[in-house]
Design goal:
By secondary structure, the chain is α+β, with helices and mostly antiparallel strands. It has one domain: Peptide deformylase (Peptide Deformylase), CATH 3.90.45. The chain starts with a strand and ends with a strand. The relative contact order is 0.22. One of its GO terms (molecular function) is metal ion binding. It holds the Pfam family Pep_deformylase. One of its GO terms (biological process) is translation.
């Protein structure tokens, strides 16, 4: 089932999400719905707070980015094959490498894209959809997508990484999103 994505201004996007246990109600169905919602909205990742669930759960499919790169562009992300993975109860162990800019957007902040600097690598400790413990290091664009989605479960949005002047310049666009004055081709839930 395709779920509505909560828009900028909704309080759930600013909460630090809670860890869950394997008996979380209808978890498999929730994960399936998150994949379906993400693909229906042309996303490469989606976090549970974006569907109004304040839990530490997100899904990432960076394979679709890597697979669509031209051969010469793939050299920009050495060692990054892309992933399609579920992250539950994720916690960052460390980040590393040089920070680099990349133009990011967010399904909860439609029609806004800005360059954000993030580290090249991220190591996470988490459990997969079968609650098997994992600790992995990710790099390149995959690390970036993971860090973006991880921010969501910590109540952080990509615009929080922008300089104050840039954020002030976006204020009217952000206000329009909060008021529901933006049209998108996917289901959204706007703050009341």
């Amino acid at each position: 089932m395709i779920l509505p994505i909560v828009a900028y201004g909704h309080p759930v996007l600013r909460k630090v999400a809670e860890d869950i246990t394997p008996d979380y109600p209808e978890l498999k169905e929730l994960i399936a719905n998150m994949w379906q919602t993400m693909y229906a909205s042309n996303g490469v990742g989606i976090a549970a707070p974006q569907i109004n669930k304040s839990i530490r759960l997100f899904v990432v499919d960076s394979k679709q980015i890597i697979d669509n790169l031209e051969d010469d562009e793939k050299n920009d992300y050495p060692g990054d094959e892309g992933i399609k993975e579920v992250f539950i109860n994720a916690h960052i162990v460390e980040t590393g490498g040089k920070e680099w800019p990349y133009n990011e957007g967010c399904l909860s902040i439609p029609k806004v894209r800005e360059d954000v600097d993030r580290p090249t690598t991220v190591t996470l400790r988490y459990v997969d959809e079968n609650f098997q413990p994992q600790e992995k290091t990710f790099t390149g664009v995959t690390a970036r997508v993971i860090q973006h989605e991880y921010d969501h479960i910590d109540g952080i949005l990509f615009i929080d990484h922008l300089k104050p002047l840039k954020r002030r310049m976006l204020k009217s666009k952000l206000d329009d999103i909060t008021k529901g004055k933006v049209r998108v081709d996917y289901r959204m839930s706007f703050p009341k």
